[in-house]
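Hi R.,

Here's the chain you asked about this morning:
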Amino acid sequence: MFGGKMSSVGKKLIRRRVVDLSSEETRFARCLSTLDLIALGVGSTLGAGVYVLAGEVAKDRAGPSIVLCFLVAALSSVLAGLCYAEFGARVPKTGSAYLYSYVTVGEIWAFTTGWNLILSYVIGTASVARAWSAAFDNIIGNHISTFFMNKTTVHVPGVLAERPDFFALILIALLTALLAFGVSESALVNKIFTAVNLLVLGFVIIAGFIKGNIKNWQLTEEDYRHLVSPDVPDEETRIKDFGSGGFVPFKLEGILTGAATCFYAFVGFDCIATTGEEARNPQRSIPIGIIVSLLICFVAYFGVSAALTLMVPYFLLDKGSPLPEAFKAVGWEPARYAVAVGSLCALSTSLLGSMFPMPRVIYAMAEDGLLFKFLSSINSRTKTPLSATITSGLLAAVMAFLLELKDLVDLMSIGTLLAYSLVAVCVLILRYQSRQLNSPKAVEMLELNGNEEERVVMNPSIAAMGTKEIEKLSLTTLFNPPSDTPTALSGRIVYTCVSVIATLITIICVVLSLKVNALKEANVGWISALVLLVVALLVPTIIIWRQPQSNARLNFKVPLLPLLPLVSIFVNILLMVQLSAGTWARFAIWMAVGFMIYFGYGIRNSVEGKNAEPRAVAEKPLHHPELDLSPRATAV
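And here is the predicted structure, written out as tokens:
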């Protein structure tokens, strides 16, 4: 009896969302163009970090080779972007990584993803609002902070901030009202601020190349001693500040550690994936928006970091305000005002980019019954998720007003990296399944004009219906499958292999993170263990590579499967395991609160659970009781 109850609960945890693509009707207003999505992605990703991050990484970790750091980071981010782009073409619905997880790997993973995305967006909104307030206060001579410091103090170290930030509270309230008013109005404001930000960055790049000196990429130890001090610095200080000079002063290790930091500079493009029901043509606009916005951001980061290191020797950069000090060094001090305007615009678009997707993820979870139902209401006039927008704005405003956010910022990384990893897993799994989520327009056109062969390509189950052969698992089916199209068995094989690969990658990343010194010292035991793990990883990877892929037509597909999603998963998990123990402890507390909501409310009120009962009576269940991930469970 107990076993039966546990089995029932287990099935509920891995039940998958049935996505109805037979209709393109939506409760939202379809008003966003491809340009709107590109501006949203650029504005959210290209935040104030572009004005600060380049100086910090160039000075401490990479020197002039920071341009290579941004190149490596951009390539890593593009891997995640490609996976989001394919799902945007495949499932044009609101929900982003939450929805993609729900239709592929099950309800508990979807809730985990959505719950962490909410945390990421809330902390992101609150921290950017505080940064906006601090930047504005700095421009006007710190009058705001001085006034409130003398009037109010609520400081509790590690919990409450030194002073309540009324300006951040007002800023979030204004943006919440803007988002509640309508998505087209929000998109217009975002485009204006993004355009100003890009103009300022264009000025910085051009001015930097005009006033820069290529000699700053070819510095020698003699230049360092001449510029820093006539006295010879001690060797330890010289190595720390100068490295070995030249274009790559801190060698390959400096480029890789710098790239790990720069990776977070490209976080934000995923907000485009939440617009599936507000874009006019989501299956085309979402992939284009994601890829183009990442390209624009890379060019901006690359150009600014190159201009900065050309204007000033990397070891003389000011980490706090690198661009104003660089312009001062070359005699263009008034340019600091342009930089100030650009940074405020960048913070504004970044704030909007954090606030925009948050209510849409909350709405999607509430609509599915996993969060409280009142959060799924849509205003009939503005066509926006009003309750979710006000609730998320209120939560972010309270956090920005009262809390010390420095210790919470790393929690944003866990939510984002987990979402990236799961989307890559979902792309890898779903491509090898026997039934696909297809655009209703594409299916209709094939029904009218396609030949029999094209119909089978779009929906391989048509061919499977004509045969009654029972598939059996063997070495042949693992490495040389008999069918050219995916089957239920090949789908289960891929699902199992992906589970094994995810486990092995996690173990490899933990070893690389915790035993890095032993590996550097060529410890035979740990190197042997690492080689064995890599060999073990190759086996399921080859098995997946040999399985037949779906040839269903999509506006965009991730190339080079299974390699690119696996590299994306590896990069994301490696960055996750490097986060501190304190961050993971806070993550555990947040997840405990989430699971209390899920097991107390969501699992009983899940719309998918209620819909599954009449489907089970009407037809034979399509869900494999164990590890089957066949999208027959997510079929249209």
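One quick note: The chain has 28 helices and no strands.

Cheers,
M.
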